[in-house]
Amino acid sequence: MGISLTKGQKVDLTKGNPNFKKLRVGLGWDTNKYTGGDTFDLDASAFLLDASGRCEKQEDFIFFNNLTGRNGGVVHTGDNLTGEGEGDDESLIVDFAKVPADIVKIAIVATIYQANEKHQNFGQVTNAFIRCVDEDTNVELMRYDLGEDYSTETGLLFAEVYKNNGEWKFSAVGSGYKEGLAGFCTQYGLSLA
């Protein structure tokens, strides 16, 4: 088992580790004993951001309808509609050699699909986590368990993978957003049209 992170903690990924090529970012969660009649569908997404903090192109937004980002630098492994079972519910693979040169940050988010229509929020979600695994060796490097209660939020900025002085780092963010996926798209310069 890797390092257990706390909110705001940052960890080097590639510095001093030249053989590190691919990172699997796994996200998982459970839902409370919610009896509202609707199932929960949480979705992991990634935004490839340039130095201005925005997505340059539509393909820099990786989610259930666009599984592969520009240059194949980030690949979503598929949409899990229920979140049932043990382990990672959804994963993103970051291939550092293929991430476009203009990308300096990858925002990793989770949102609740149709949260407003179903009256759902992250306060009804438990055991949410993000973990980083060396894709080539399958060794878990770090894990960040969200312990906060996000009673009104429909989106979470789980973490950021960012470049600093040519090296990639990981930051455990854990910030909640009330606007869900549309809010993230607007923040990062995209529209959901």
Outline of the structure:
This protein has 193 residues and is mainly β. It is built from two helices and twelve strands; from the N terminus they run E-E-E-E-E-E-E-E-H-E-E-E-E-H.
In terms of per-residue confidence, which ranges show pLDDT below 50 for 5 or more consecutive residues?
A: none
Give the overall silhouette.
globular
Distance between the termini: 41 Å
CATH superfamily membership:
sav2460 like domains
Helix content: under 10%
CATH architecture: Sandwich
The helix-and-strand class reads mainly beta
- Strand-residue proportion: 35-45%
CATH class: Mainly Beta
Strand count, sense and barrel status of the largest sheet are: 6 strands, mixed
Description:
The protein is built from 2 helices and 12 strands, in the order E-E-E-E-E-E-E-E-H-E-E-E-E-H. By secondary structure, the chain is mainly β. It has one domain: Sandwich (Lipoxygenase-1). The strands form 2 sheets. The protein has a 6-stranded mixed sheet, with no helix packed on it. It has a 6-stranded antiparallel sheet with strand order 2-12-11-8-4-5. A hairpin with a 4-residue loop joins strand 9 and strand 10. The model has no long low-confidence stretch (mean pLDDT 86).
